[in-house]
Design a protein that fits this description.
The protein is 26% helix and 29% strand. By secondary structure, it is an alpha+beta fold. The chain has a seven-stranded mixed sheet, sandwiched between helices. Strand 2 and strand 3 form a beta hairpin.
């Protein structure tokens, strides 16, 4: 297993993004409407990772700098986007590995808090994040007014 940074518009990223959108449609009835641009995931503003087994992409996730106070973010936030593992590779710890790599990268880029938005129809994601030290916080972002939305955060700064 190898985790590699790629551009968000890399062909493998596009393929995995289409699969995660299908997953959102299956679970929520619609895809994620969050506008994303490849430049959002370009260092030092973010990064986008894919876990490969040989040449086969199995899992993905990215973070982007997000500090829009009007949408409920805070200065220093790094927002996780597009965490996804193909169904046949689930249960192997790939999401946890991607998450740890994203946290380390965001911390190295000077980000102080990792935030994410998921939903009630993704109990696996809620469990992963809770077991990784994330806690529910006030809602932020595009889906902050949706009942199904759950926003979580984790400090990237060691306690003094």
């Amino acid at each position: 297993m190898e985790i590699r940074p790629v551009r968000y518009d890399h062909p493998d990223a596009v393929t995995l993004d289409a699969l995660v959108q299908q997953e959102y449609v299956r679970r929520y009835g619609d895809g994620d409407m969050t506008p994303l641009d490849p430049e959002m995931f370009t260092p030092p503003h973010g990064t986008y990772l894919i876990a490969y087994e040989g040449a086969r992409p199995l899992a993905t996730g990215g973070w982007r700098r997000q500090e829009d106070l009007a949408e409920g973010y805070a200065v220093g936030d790094a927002e996780i986007k597009r965490m996804f593992v193909v169904p046949e590779a689930r249960g192997r710890g790939l999401a946890r590995q991607i998450l740890a790599a994203l946290e380390a990268d965001a911390r190295a880029a000077g980000r102080t808090r990792m935030v994410l938005e998921t939903g009630t129809e993704q109990p696996e994601a809620l469990a992963l994040y809770a077991s990784s030290g994330y806690a529910l916080v006030n809602k932020f972002g595009l889906y902050r007014t949706y009942d199904e939305s759950r926003c979580m955060a984790k400090s990237l700064v060691a306690d003094a």
